[in-house]
Amino acid sequence: TQEGNVTTVEQICKDCQSTYKTVSTYNDSGDLEREEIYINSTLDFTELESYSAIKEYSEFNGLRYVSYERIDTLSHTGKSFYSEERNERESYSGTFGDSGERITSSYSDSEGASKTSDTAYVFYKNHQYTIYSEHRDGDYFERFDYTYSFEGCCERTEHYTNSDGKDYTDVSCCCYFSDYEIKAPTCSQSGLRGSVCDVCGKTTDTYEKDPHDHDFVKQEGAEMYVCTICGLENANGTSGSIIMEDLTSKYGEGEYYVVGYYARNQVEFTYYVSLILTDGSEVILEGIEFIELTDAVAIKFSKQTVIDIAAGKGYNEGEYDVRFSFVPYGSDGSFDYGLTFTK
After folding, report:
1. Which residues pair with 196 in a beta bridge?
2. pTM of the predicted model, to two decimals?
3. I need a surface site. Which of 41, 102, 157, 332 has the fewest CB within 10 A?
4. What pairs with residue 170 in β-bridges?
5. Category of 122 on φ-ψ map: left (φ > 0), alpha (ψ -120 to 50) or beta
C-alpha cells in the first residue's frame, strides 16, 4: 500500500511461512529515510517469535550513513546492534595518478566496540588503483599497501600486515585489457586483432584477420573497374587467385616499387618485371633484385634499376609502364597475374 511518502509491503516467507511487513518512508526527493521491518515467526524459537528492525538513513558529507536498531517485541526491550556508521570522503594525492580519494568509515555497536576502515585510491588513465586499505576492529587490524609498475606490463605489488604478525608480499598482473583492432586488414594484407591493455599497451591473445580482397565497382560509362578500398584500377573486375595491391607509397621510401600480395588459394608462383610499351608489347627485364619485406607480405624492387636496365635496351622514362607479374607454377604461360605501375 502507498500513503503519502510511506510504502507498506506485507509478504509471507516461502521457506518458513513467517509473515513480515516492510514500511518504507521517503523524503520529498525520493530518498529512503526510514525502513521498518516487522516479523511474526511461526517457528518455535522464542527469540525469533516477534521482533522489528528499524534503519534510519541520513546524509553526511555527500555520503549516506545508516543507524540500526532491533526491538524484541516479546520483552519490549530495545537492542541496538549498530548505533552509528559514518563515512567521510576527501581528496587524496598518491605517488602517481590523475586524482584520488580517501574514504574513512567508523561505526560502533551496542556494546561500544568500534570498527574503522581507511582506504585511499587514485585514478590513472581512467582506471582506479587502490593505494592502501586498513581495517581495525577493536585491537585487531589488517592493512594492505599497494605499489604499481607500468613498464612493459602493469604489475601490482601487494604488501599485507596484521596485528597477529602476519606479513607477506604478493606480485600480480593488473592490466586492464580491451579488445582492439591492432592493425586493420587491407586488400592484400592480413589485419591483427587482440587484447590490449589500456594502461601499459601490452598485447595478448592476438589473431589475424584475412585481407578484404578488392571491392571492384565500375561506374556507368567508365572503362575500368576501381576498388573502393585501395583505388586499384582493374580491367575485368576480378582479383584471381593472387590478390595484389600497390604499396609503393607506404613502403617504397621513394626508391622502390612495392607489390603487396595474398595467395588465397596457396598457389605457388614465380615472378618477373617487364616494360609495357606504348604499342602494348612487353619487354621482360633481366637482372632485377627482388626483396621480400619483413613487416608486410610484399615484394619490392628498385625504381632506378628498372630505369637503368630499360635505358640499356634503348627505352627512356615516359615511354613505358612497369609491370610486376606472378606466374603460377604449372601454367601453360597463357595467363599470369600482374600489377602495372603507370607513368
Report:
1. 178, 203
2. 0.56
3. 332
4. 158
5. beta
